[in-house]
Every structure is written in C-alpha cells, then in structure tokens.
Here is the input.
Amino acid sequence: MQLDNVASLSHFIPELVLSGAIVLLILLDLIIVNRRVAGALAMAASVATLLLVIAGGASNTWLFNGMVVFDSFAFFFRLLITLATIVAVWMSIGSVEVRRCEQGEYYAILLSASLGMFLMAEANNLLMAYLSLELVSLTSYILTGFLKHNRRSQEAALKYLIYGGVASGTMIYGMSWIFGIAGGLDFGAINAALSQSGTGSSLAVFIALVLILAGMGYKVASVPFHMWAPDVYTGAPIPITTFLAVGSKAAGFALLTRFFYPAISHLAADGNWQALSGVDWPQLLLVICMITMTLGNLAALQQNNMKRLLAYSSIAQAGYALMGFVVLSNDGLRAMMFYLIAYYVMDAGAFLVVMIVANATGHEDIDAYRGLAWRGGLVPAVALAIFLFSLTGIPLTVGFIGKFYLFAAAIRGQFYILALVGIINSVISLYYYVRPIRTMFLDEPEGDEGAVTAEAWNYGLMGALAAATIVLGLYWGPLIDFAGRSLKFFIGPA
Amino acid sequence: MDHLLTIITFAPLVGMVLILLCPRDQHNLIRWLAAAATVPQIVIAIYLYAHFDTATTAVQFAERYPWVPAYHINYFIGVDGISISMVLLTALICFISVFASFGIEKGVKGYFALLLLLDTGMMGVFVALDFFLFYIFWEVMLLPMYFLIGIWGGPRREYAAIKFFLYTLLGSVLILLAMLGLYYYNPTPTFDMTKLAANAASYSITFQRIAWIALFIGFAIKIPAFPFHTWLPDAHVEAPTAISVILAGILLKMGTYGILRVNFGILPAATHDMAWAFLGVVGTINIVYGALCAMAQTDYKKLIAYSSVSHMGYVMLGLAAFTAAGINGAVLQMFNHGTITAMLFILVGVIYDRAHHREIDGFGGLASHLPIYAGITGLAFFAAMGLPGMSAFISEVLVLLGSWQVHPIMTVLGASAAILTAGYMLWTYQRIYLGPVNDRYIGFSDLSARELFTLVPLAAIVLILGVYPHAILGLLNTSLTHLNQVVIASAPHTASVALAH
Here is the structure.
C-alpha cells in the first residue's frame, strides 16, 4: 500500500512527536533559563516516542509516495534507535561535562539526530537515504564539538566533518551511477531494473556499490572508513559517544542492510540471498569484515584511554556484526540484528560506567580505574566487568549469545575462514577487555585516584543494563524470535 | 529425588547468593556458609554412589527441560559411567577446598562467593549432556578462576591469571566452532550429546577429523597436554592453596573427560584414526617431559605442578590404547590423581603458610619437628609414585597393561618414567623432611585439626582404592567398555586390521 503525503502523517506520529519536541526545545531555550527542563522534556519526548513506536507496530506501507517504508525491519530499528536515544538523553542529564553547556540546543540537536536515524532505517529511496544520512551526520558533527572549551572535542568535530564530507560526497556520486544505470532512485525500481539482464555492465554496478559503501561503511565505522571513530569517540562528550556507538551504528546497519539486501539482491526460497550475478560485493564485504574486526582489536590492545579503547572495540564489534551481513542468509541477518541489540545493551553500559567514573574523578584513562573495586566503587566495577566480559563474548552474557548466533550463521553458510578469524579475534579481544578489569580488581588503589560515587539515576540505568546483559544471556528465546520476525522487508504487495 | 543433579550442581550457587547477602566483616559466618553449601553435594554424591546402576550404559538421574526450543537447546543433565566418578571427585574436592580456604583473610566474602561459583561450573560440566549447556558451564568456570588466581594469588598473579584465561579461552572457542559444526552437520540438528553420539556414523570422515582436532586442542589445553601445558606451572605457583587443589584435582580432569565424552563418544571414527598420535605420543611426552621438568624444579609447588603434567600423561596413554584395561585405568587414574594431587597441594600449602617460602633447598629435617606432617606427606609421595597398596598403583598398572599390547614402545617409555617419578619424589622428600635440621623451622607447629580434616579423608580414599579399586572401577566398567567398543567398531578399516593380526 502506498500512501500520499497527507495520508502518511497518521503513520508518522512518533517522528512527528520527535519533530515537535525539537521545535519546542529550541523555543524553550529562548524563554526559559532552567536547564533541567530541557532534559526532562527531551526525556519525555523520547519515552513518548518509544510508546508510540510500540503502539504503531509495523504496517507494511509505503509513506510519502514511496520515500519511506514501514515494515517489520523498520519497526525493529525504530525501537532500537529510540532505546539508544533514551540512554543518550538519560546519560546527558547525568553527565557533568554536558551540564556545563547550553542545554536547549543540545537536546534539540540530539533529537534531530535521532529523527535522522529513524529515517535512515525507513528510507526506501536513495534520495531519502542520502538526506537522512546527512541529517544524522550534520547533527553528529555539532554534538561532537559541543564541548566548546575542550580542544579535543573541537578537533574531533573537525575530523568528523572532513571525513564525513568526503564519505557522503563519494556516496552520492555512487548513487548517481545507480540512477544512471537503473533509471530510478526507488529501491523497488532499482531492484527491478538491475535484475533485468543487460541493464548496464556489472562492472559499473560494482563501482557504484563500492562508492555507496563509502558512505554507509563510514556510518558503521568499518575499515577503511573507520579512521574518524577513535578521535571522535574520544573527543565527544560521553553521552554523544554512546549515541554514536549504539544508535548511529545501528541506523547505519539498517540502511546498509536495506540497500544491499532487498534493493539489489534476491531472496531465495531457502532463506538465502542471491547477489546480482557478476557483482561480487559479498566477497568485498567479507574481506572488509575480517579486516575490520582484526584491525579494531589489534589497535585496541595499545590504548590507555577508556573511550579510545571502547572506540577501537566498537570498530571490532562492527566487524563481528558484519559477519552476519556477509553470509547472505536470513540466519546471518537475524544474527546481526540480535547482535545489534546485544551490542546496544553492553556497549551503552560500558560507556555509562566510563561516564560515572569520569564524573567522579574527571579522568577517562585506565589508570583512573586502579583498584576501583577496593576504593568504594565495587558496584560500577562489577557492572563494567559484566559489560566487558559480554563484549568479549563470555557465556552467561548477551554478548556470548550474540556471537553464538553469528558464528552459527557463518558455520551454516560454510564460511569457515570467517568463523576462524572471528574466534581468533574474540581471544585477542579478551586481552584488552580484561585490562580495565585487571586494573579495577587485581591492582590495589594508590590513594590518589579519588572515590567514585554516582547519583541514583545513573546507578539505576547501569543496573538495568547490567541486568539485561545477564538475563538476556540466560533467556534470549523471545528476543531472537523477535529479531527473526522483524526480518521482513516490504518490497511490494505480494 | 527427581532433581538430585540439579541440586548437586546449583546448591553452591545458592550458597553464593547467601554469602553475597552476608555482611562483609562476618568472616566466620561466610566460611561456614560456604562449607554448608558444599555439604548437599557430599550427601547427594554418596546417594548417587549407592544408587548408581552399574549394569547399564544408559544415562541415569536424567533431567531434561527445553531451554531455547527454536534452537534445540535443552537443559539436559544426567550421569553415566563416564561422568559418575568425576561427579564424586568434584563433590569431594570442593568440600575439602572450602576447608582448605579457611585461612584466607583478604576479601573473604568475594573469595568464597567465587569459589562456590567455580564449584557450580565444574559440577555442571560433568553432569551436562547438552553440548550447549556443557559449553556454558565450561566457560563459566573461567571467570571465577581468573579472579581467584588474580586477586588472591602470589606475586606474579596477574600474569598467571591472564595467561590461564587466554589459553583456556582459545581452547574454548575452538570447541564452540566444533560444536556448531556438529550441530549443523547432524541430519537432525541437535545439541543433545546422546543423540549426537547416536548419529556418529552420519559425519564424513574429513569433517570428523577437522572437528576432532579443534575439540582436541580445546581439551588438551585443559589437561594440559604438551605443548599447551605452559600455563599450568604459572597458574599453580601463583594460585592460593585451595585453588591449586581445585585446579589440579578437578580442572585438569575436564580435559580428559571432554575427550572421552565428545571425541570418543561423538567422533569415534576420527578417534580411532588419530588417538595413537594425539593421545598416545603426546601422552608419553607428557609423562617423560613432565617428570624431567619436575626433577629440575627448585620450587616445591612448581614441582608438584609438573608432576601433574606427568601423571595426566598416563590418562592419555590409557585412552589411546582402545582396550578395556586402558580406558578403565585412564578414568581411574583421573580419579586417583585428583585425590593424590589434592593432598600434595594441601601439604605444600601447609608448609608455605608456616615458612612463607617454597624453596625445596631452604628446608631440611622437618620430619623431626613435624612428624605427623612428614608422615602424611610420605604417604602422599608414595601414592604419587604409584607404590603398590596405593590407589595410583592400580590405575597406572591398568593403563600400562592395557597399552602394552597396542603401543609397546610408548608403554616402555611411560613405565620407565616411574623411575624418574620415584627419583624426584624421593629426592624432594629427602631435601625437605630428612637430613640435618634447619634451625629456622624448630618452632613450627604440626598439622592443625583443620588441616588434618582436609587430608585424612583423601588419604583414606587413597589407601582404600589401593586395595579395593573396584569401589570406583565397578561404576565405570560397563559404560567405558561399551564406549571402547563403539570406537573400535566405528573404524572403517576394522576388518583389515583384524586380518593383519
């Protein structure tokens, strides 16, 4: 079903609520001086969005004359992005470094980024894909540089902007090739045109895909478009780092999947996907995936700053999630989607603890964690240990279950080398994930690190994420079913 | 009575939760709570021993509930002749380890909580019959072990702990891949080990070999088989006494247990092909190399650690023979080594607690001041040497008898290493307990009641099994003989081998 602009609005309520909140926040900033109100409003808007997304469900319709699609897949990512927004807003309210800034704009821009991510997950047209991706990018640049008096933050924003500009320029160039070959921007039209033999040369299509990959790979921070991530993750305020790591990345995966799967590939009856003949992007991405996880892990080994360590770790984690992407099966995509949820829970948790420690001590270096468990910070220390073990993939955590499904999909698709590279990377990653744990538990405090305490609401979120990490590691059946059910792309009335 | 194995597995976990609820400074309460949490295991272990049906190869006391049905993952536990002796051993060693830990003063609450978590993990490995569940328990053990070595260990504890963690994780992930392979290559995907074993014939021999090697490396790291043994001396030297006891007494057995349960049970054809090299040759190297290394040590605890490497070699050699005597001897050796080495590590801990060092040459003449201690040490040393009348004698002789017909050269090498063992054991005994009295140690007290309480049950078992090995062998024989038959029958070229003889 395809709806026109007016009829679409009734399906678009969560996004409209977000837009309304953005406008209201900008206006509020002009009128009210109290900074707490802005945070509370942003929080209320995010929670309302979450409820509306759940209430709306998935309706298998094209909105705005086919620019945007509402299917189960989009529903899944809207949910995930809203959850990421809630965590980002929650952390922003509790963050000391954010509290020092003008907050009205901050929350308005944060929610704009969230809106952009929604559209990325729903885009059904290259133009929409480009616009939504740009919306997310532009807002992310501002948020990254929001600490006006922090030089690292400024430098990070500039780097992000330059890399981002190059990546999106490359991407839109690739999109113009696709437009030239397929004669349309709509994903359905592209699919129909490309699957007819004789439409353009396969080499031209391949080049176009590589160019487009630059923009999307940049969003998920995969090699070789990852260079911005360490600096940006380190320089940005921690809530924004978290938002980029779990939200922006998830939206990137959503767009990547929708473009490379339903738009240019075909689903066979057995649940496996077939790429266009002669256009060997799966091989390319297979190599990218293996290099991404290896490079991320190896680079993380040397880091002494927690945010930087988690930045490289998030590159490696994107590599793991790509494992599900490159095996060309619904099993793999389902594993990837499950892993994105797992990654959301554990990575947001890890960044939250980093923020709690940074709030209390003003430091983000691993040295600031020395003997944390023995100097009154046992609770955050245990929580961080849970998140880091989960990121490693140790059982009883959701991270293990996520990796289990990824490896299962790789083995089932007979990608043995990929599976082997994946497990070797898991072992390597243990070494650096355990380093903060070792510092917190095995080392004695030296006395000059300062005590770590946090407000109840920060502990509350941390406890919830830690509990989710473990509970989902013990009982994940409904969640994997949900990921499986969400794996339906609406490509037209059957 | 339906949930005996669930109780035996999770009773320590309940204890852990209770301990976490205790106030931090109530040290004695925490200690006795931990002890109480291991009592149900002992009681149930005795019940299992009394009611175990020795005539069947079937799984007993089984419990099965769906966990994640969409992926055929079940909570499926049970015991058979392969695992029963290990369940008994785990219950016993864990009970004793708790008492051996009463001297811990730093972070008492955390220590005992982790110890009990470790207990649940180990027991779970031996009762799990669903491969996924087995894997979860297998990895869950790593976490408490890492912290127990890393926080309560010696000066180089951080290095030892991370080395242990990295080695075993590498092994574990290989097991994970093999597990997924078995799952997908089975005609009906399942993690049920009994079903996987029943469908063993459906795997191609190439697949079996690849999976076998992945599994073998995973398990060999735990045994530890040469050349994957280097984590063991480090871990042992740094670990606190009770953790060394658990490490040598139970953890090492998981390696050989895994080989029996998975490699033998599920991949019999590949086992038949590869065992002589990977178990026989490597086992022989373990025996000789471990003994030679032990001889060269100056640290008492490191010496005992290397003797474990040597003694676990007998288990591998016995498994490689595919004879009833070999496989029975191997599993009996697992049990015996568990009890003897536990004694040895407790005894090392006793002297370390008093002297605060473990240099073998730094002692001398201890026997004249600490007669009871020296006496029990003598008993444990003789047991470790495999003297007749002690439990290890029976199991080592069974292994060598079983192996002699099949691998005569390895058997001769393995048997000769007994001389090396006697050499380093007696030499060590002489340097520490005999000879001129070292004045520094005159004031030392002999074994305390608590120390005696941890040692005497082990010593009694060593002596009883020395004269009546049937007490354990009776449990094993039916299942192991059957498993052995399965492996022999699965070989594609059984007929030609028979003709050649």
Remarks:
- Chain B has a mean pLDDT of 90.
- Chain B touches chain A through 31 residues (CB under 8 Å).
- The first strand of chain B starts at residue 60 and ends at 68.
- Chain B has one domain: 4-491.
